[in-house]
């Protein structure tokens, strides 16, 4: 699969990711470490980050009995997912993965190591008690068809739960269409992706409901307040959907049943409430 160039935003993402990981020590990642933070053993870990300068999202599941890994990943701006299979290394220092395209052809290899790190504001005492040893893999992607090797930097960003595949697929499809419509400034294509009434939530303007596509097209500039950089680097794959929907573009878009239901300045209330149910 071709790796697109994403301009300066992708390069800055790459720089930031590797600058962050350079400050963190390498860690071991055992099956028990991997399962820390997942609801159940069969759930998958979702990561975001970069391969080279290309934003990606990755999902990996571990069989704790065998150390076998399987999963998928996708690139920003590109349809489809690439399949991953491999294992955690016996010394728990990293993971080795093989990549296949949609036709089952082997296309690349991925070699990862894990970095132990602190989240911003995280209590060092709790971090020592509950170390996030598997949450920040770094490594190398190598092409099987060309003399190409790219660096990888990832960070855990959610949980994949079996049973939500239909919702995830619908929301991933509309997320890619939304990304393309926003980058093309295609107001009609954007309006066609919305569920009506469609809600816009602003810091100063509060919430507003739009009931017709014509009104959305007319007031597009009021609704669309994200930068192209934010839209371009958002990866429309593996959005960690639950049974009702999924967040996209750093939580400023909420998708449900294959439609865009809400856009917000900052994180949408439905996303914030889900993340902090006691608030």
Overview of the structural elements:
The chain is an alpha+beta fold and 279 residues long. It folds into two domains: 7-160, Beta Barrel (Porin), CATH 2.40.160; 165-275, Nuclear Transport Factor 2, Chain: A (Roll), CATH 3.10.450. The protein has nine helices and 14 strands. The chain has helices spanning 7-22, 31-35, 124-129, 165-184, 187-192, 213-218, 220-223, 228-233, 269-275; strands spanning 26-27, 44-51, 54-63, 68-75, 82-88, 94-100, 106-115, 137-143, 149-160, 194-202, 206-210, 246-248, 253-256, 259-264. It is globular and about 60 Å long. The relative contact order is 0.14.
Poorly predicted runs of 5 or more residues:
1-23, 273-279
The assigned structural class equals alpha+beta
Cα shape: globular
Q: Just give the CATH class of the largest domain.
A: Mainly Beta
Total number of strands = 14
First-residue to last-residue Cα separation: 44 Å
Number of helices: 9
Helix fraction, binned, reads 25-40%
Radius of gyration: 19 Å
CATH architecture of the largest domain: Beta Barrel
| Side-by-side strand order of the widest sheet | 2-3-4-5-6-7-8-9
Tell me, rounded to a whole number, the average pLDDT. Answer: 84
Order of helices and strands: HEHEEEEEEHEEHHEEHHHEEEH
CATH topology of the largest domain: Porin
Residue share in β-strands: 35-45%
Strand count, sense and closure of the main sheet? 8 strands, antiparallel, barrel
User: How many discrete domains?
Assistant: 2
């Amino acid at each position: 699969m071709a790796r697109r160039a994403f301009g300066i935003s992708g390069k800055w993402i790459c720089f930031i990711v590797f600058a962050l990981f350079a400050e963190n020590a390498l860690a071991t990642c055992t099956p028990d470490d991997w399962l820390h933070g997942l609801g159940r053993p069969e759930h998958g870990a979702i990561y975001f980050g970069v391969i080279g300068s290309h934003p990606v999202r990755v999902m990996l599941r571990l069989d704790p009995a065998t150390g076998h890994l399987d999963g998928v990943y996708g690139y920003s701006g590109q349809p489809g997912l690439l399949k991953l299979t491999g294992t955690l290394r016996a010394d728990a220092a990293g993971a080795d993965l093989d990549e296949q395209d949609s036709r089952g052809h082997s296309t690349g290899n991925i070699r990862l190591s894990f970095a132990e790190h602190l989240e911003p504001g995280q209590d060092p005492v709790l971090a020592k008690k509950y170390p996030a040893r598997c949450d920040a893999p770094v490594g190398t992607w190598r092409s099987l068809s060309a003399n190409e090797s790219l660096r990888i930097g990832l960070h855990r960003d959610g949980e994949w739960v079996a049973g939500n595949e239909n919702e995830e697929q619908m929301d991933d499809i509309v997320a890619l269409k939304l990304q393309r419509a926003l980058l093309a400034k295609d107001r009609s294509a954007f309006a066609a992706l919305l569920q009506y009434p469609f809600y816009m939530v602003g810091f100063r303007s509060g919430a507003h409901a739009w009931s017709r596509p014509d009104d959305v097209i007319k007031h597009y500039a009021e609704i669309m307040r994200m930068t192209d950089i934010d839209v371009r680097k958002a990866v429309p794959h593996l959005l960690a959907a639950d049974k009702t929907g999924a967040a996209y573009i750093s939580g400023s878009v909420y998708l449900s049943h294959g439609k865009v239901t809400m856009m917000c300045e900052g994180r949408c209330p439905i996303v914030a409430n889900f993340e902090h149910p006691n608030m």
